Fold this protein.
Amino acid sequence: MSQATLMALSRDGVSKATRKEATLQEVMRLSSTGQRDNLKPEEGVDLNTLQIFSKIRNELTSVDGVLVLCGGRVEVPDEIQKRVDELAHEGNQGRLVKTRTLLRSKVWFPRMNSLVDSIVKHCVPGKVATPKPSREPL
């Protein structure tokens, strides 16, 4: 399990954030009871996110009732998604594909690509370090 989390995140940190998130609690409940097709959102549960999880319900597992795994990758709660993206982007500044590849090898969460895109797009050091091909005037 320790291999599935990023180095700067502890399992306890991810599990605490998971316990706070109503949507992931509902995903774990549906997964553990075998009612993966029974989508009845309760208060605080995001129906759109729950529908995304229902599309991949066969890949979801719950670990000790505190973590959700999607095909061996840790499902990152909303609370720490931006932090996870920034950690992945830290060593790959300006490199969208490498940042996405690193994230996909360890974690998963809905709308991951759009969050990575926005972080890379607004990265000033990445813009400076990335060469822009230009043509010399004739």
Remarks:
- The mean pLDDT is 77.
- Residues 18 and 24 are 6 Å apart (CA to CA).
- The radius of gyration is 18 Å.
